[in-house]
Amino acid sequence: MRVAIIDESAVRASVMQDGLAELGDCEIFVVTERRGLVRRISEIDPDIVLMDLGNPSRDVLEEYFAVSRALARPIAMFVDETDEESIGASIDAGVSAYVVDGFAQHRIRSILDLAIRRFHAFSRLQTDLADARSKLAEREAVDAAKRILMQSRGLSEPQAYAELRKTAMNQGRRLVDIAEAVVTAQKLMGGV
After folding, report:
1. pTM of the model
2. Domain boundaries of the chain, sorted by first residue
3. Quick one: which of 14, 19, 96, 158 has the most CB atoms within 10 Å?
């Protein structure tokens, strides 16, 4: 497992690195510089990112939340103190595990596993949501095209659908592509 540790404090980073070394199956990269952080993480291409922020200011915390939004990786963030606003912001930023009150070496494996599993579960939910939205948009386009054909040509709903389907098959295109073309044509002609 490739692990990137982000920590401006070399002392805190070494504690985390020691905890990971006990696992034995980790390739560890330590990043202590905030500049170019997203680029550096992309170069490392880790399986998980661990951020130990200690007791960050609001500005530093927001900067790291911006980094976590940009990374498509599981992220475990460690802070010494927190508040409800920071917890909410971490969730919105896609942080997979938000650990308050320090880092314990004996808990590192469970925190890594949790962060990775939460990240993958959230990614699946996002993919499912995108698929559902896409299917809904396709359905709306087909329904709009059927309405146009029903109004302009006096067809019933099954007839309008059959006409769209037949055209799609004859042209070797997807039904939704034909439906979108009908809707676009109607808009160009001054309807809808």
Report:
1. 0.68
2. 2-103, 133-188
3. 96
